[in-house]
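Dear Dr. H.,

I hope your travels went smoothly. While you were away I took the liberty of generating a structure for the chain from your last submission, since the lab meeting agenda had it listed for discussion. I wanted you to have the full record in hand beforehand rather than looking at slides cold. The sequence, exactly as received, is reproduced here:
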Amino acid sequence: MTERSIYLLLVLIAAALCLPACGAKQHPMPEEGMADSQTLIRHATSRDEVLDAARAQAVMEYFGSDGRVRVRQALLVRRPGNFRLETLSPMDSTLSVVVTNDEELTYYDLAAERAYTGAPSASNLAKLIPLWLSPEQIVRVVLGSVPFEMAQVEPDAWDLEWDGNKNAWLLEAETPDGGKMAFWVRHDSWVLAGARAKNNDGRTLWEIRTRDFTRVSDGEEETELPTRIRFVMKDQNVDVSLTVKEYEMNPDLPEHLFELFLPDVEEISLDEPAL
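The corresponding predicted structure, in token form, is as follows:
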């Protein structure tokens, strides 16, 4: 084979390998466009006014150092930071339940007859579920809202552009610690289409990936929600996915659903440095 033939062959191989990536669909920018980042933020914030709560049946998958765990769950969320997450057995009995309200976070392991209680903070929740979000931020993400407050920047600090690959608007800003935070927001529905945080060296700290959006309605209002939410922290070997099988928008969720009255079991404080 001549040198020229080898070169042509290498070019053809490179082109073939590029096809899957280069062939990714690029969605055009919406015709009406977007005036600026503050306008987009107002749209996303106004969406929050029509979606206050949700009920969902879901499957959670956890990939980590201990392998893969897959469980069925029943999930209730209500603004600002109330949620109830029940892990179910194949026979639909409750194996464990996590409940948060304005005052307390409680995890009850029925099989072990043990409960953990503490302040409803991100640090306490992380001792139970390997995420970095506070209960309020988890509620916002499950409801498809954009947790702008995580960046701790003013509305005019965001750079705005259209991301044709994600079919969403990209908002990116430098955070007070020198890192960068990005949010993707779908046009018209103004639902969260992804999020990412980087440190001041450009290394990705965490990502939220949402996809497979569906339209939901409460009979009066309608919006869009993701049926697949993935939380990724590669450096800490954390990969948690929530696949929603059924959504109910704005159900009536009484206060008692976000309170947990424990039987006579061992109680351990989450407010201590370690479990």
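Two observations you may find useful: Residues 37-269 form a domain with the outer membrane lipoprotein receptor (LolB), chain A fold (CATH 2.50.20.10). DSSP finds four helices and 14 strands in the chain.

With kind regards,
E. W.
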